[in-house]
Amino acid sequence: MKDLIDKILAYLPKYISECGLVISGPKTFIASKIDSERRIPSNDCLIFLAITIAVTTMLGALLPSGKDIYLGLASNAATGFFSIALFSFTISISWWLVGGRAPYREFFTVLTYLVGPAALINSVFVFLAYGVLRTFDHQTFDALAKVTYVGDRSRIIIGSIAFIPFICIIYAGVLAISVFSIIGWGAYRNITGLSRMKSFFALLISGMLSVPGLLLLWFISMAVS
After folding, report:
1. Angle at 146 between CA 215 and CA 52, to 5 degrees
2. Separation of alpha carbons 70 and 61, rounded Å
3. Any idea where the domains of the chain sit in the sequence?
4. Chain centroid to CA 35: how far?
5. What are the pLDDT digits (tens) for 59-93?
6. Does the keyword Membrane apply (predicted)?
7. C-alpha atoms less than 13 angstroms from C-alpha of 71 in its C-beta half-sphere
């Protein structure tokens, strides 16, 4: 574990810098990465994804969950790579249906660089929400450390006196991620060369095609929780 942490810490400054660049200008940064990979193929996006999974797992371990960090890292790695591969395919199909053509690898790269910052944004809001919970309902916060099943954790949080501010912060995080994702969607338009109108229809189609994948990931998360 120490070797893993050392490797993550060594790459962390570059990772944080890249996340900042993606957040400040997702289309510009991702376009530069795509252009670079077209000239010289690399595994930079895979490293970025691996660090995203490792960092979010380690941050999650700081919250009350009752989960073993090694089990969490293994399950997050499996579901993380699987979900990126699955939804990259779904997104590529949605663009193909509106006339967009680009290699699958480029769709994978775009989604990877969008997921990293989105995961960090989510972590910030989750930490804020749990901070509120710990401040105003320490008993509930401590009880969560003994529970791993998602359903049981949800029932405990719903019964908390701090539930309303907790859920408001969580939804604020969802809103922030949604805004970032919509802005970042333009990166797909860059690699396909299509209009904003076709991009809009690709977004709608992608949303519909993603429903089965989301259900599948939900069942998987229930199984490993």
Report:
1. 50
2. 10
3. 2-224
4. 23
5. 777 776 656 666 767 777 778 888 999 999 999 99
6. yes
7. 9
As given in the structure block, the two tokens for residue 16 are 């944080």
Residue type, 198: K
- Retrieve residue 200's tokens: 């809009």
d(CA 158, CA 152): 10
146 CB-side CA count, 13 A:
6
pTM: 0.84
**pLDDT exceeds 60 at position 224:** no
Among 133, 138, 143, which Cα is nearest to 164's? 133
* Residues 14-44: tens digit of each pLDDT: 888 888 889 888 889 998 888 888 887 777 8
* Six token digits for residue 180: 């970032």
Token readout for 40 is 């010289």
> Rounded CA gap, 82 and 90, in Å?
12
Contact 95, 188 (CB under 8 A): yes
Sort 151 into a burial class: Cβ within 10 Å, 0-12 / 13-18 / 19+.
exposed
Q: How many Cα atoms are found within 13 Å in the side-chain-facing hemisphere of 24?
A: 6
